[in-house]
Amino acid sequence: MTISISDIAGIIQGMGSLVAIGVAIWIYARQYRDKKADDKAETAAFVQAIRDEIHALLGLYEHQIGPALRSLEPGKGFHYFYPVSADALTIYNSASSRVGKVTDPKLRRLIVQTYALAKGIISSYQMNNQLLADNERLALTYHENDREDLLVRREQGLAEYAGGLKEQDERLSQSVKELLEHAERWLTDHAAVR
User: Fold this and answer.
1) pLDDT tens-digit readout, 102-125
2) Which of its termini does the chain have fewer beta carbons within 10 Å around, N or C?
3) How do residues 138-187 score in pLDDT, each as one tens digit?
């Protein structure tokens, strides 16, 4: 049995095809590993950004309004206009879909919980601002016989609302503390991908 040139060419072509398949598999595996590494790095950067955003917002909150709310005596209304907006939650608002990439279920839950509480208290501060504005407008423009009774009832309403604000503040403070502690541990464990 003799091997012809066409047989040799076929064998070489077959070997070339096998090498091409091997190289394609190697390239795919390499791209898959790189994508996984990039995804882990992006997730770590997201968690870092969340941590940094919470630290920054907490610093502003603790400097401006948190202590005033916490020192409020029971039965008193919170008479501070606090111009705040959910737009302040820039990182979370623009990249919330990244939360699903966080593999730690507790960290994922804490991120969602903390931001939900933050958005809730922001809405409550906005409502308190509106109640204050309404009360001020009422005090300036309402001159009927029941004016004093109405103003007292409105003040009682503000006091009740302030009690709710304090409860929200407490829940948010606890959630922020847990989130920051857990995020620090998670980031330390994932330091290699940072």
Assistant:
1) 999 999 999 999 999 999 999 999
2) N
3) 999 999 999 999 999 999 999 999 999 999 999 999 999 999 999 999 99
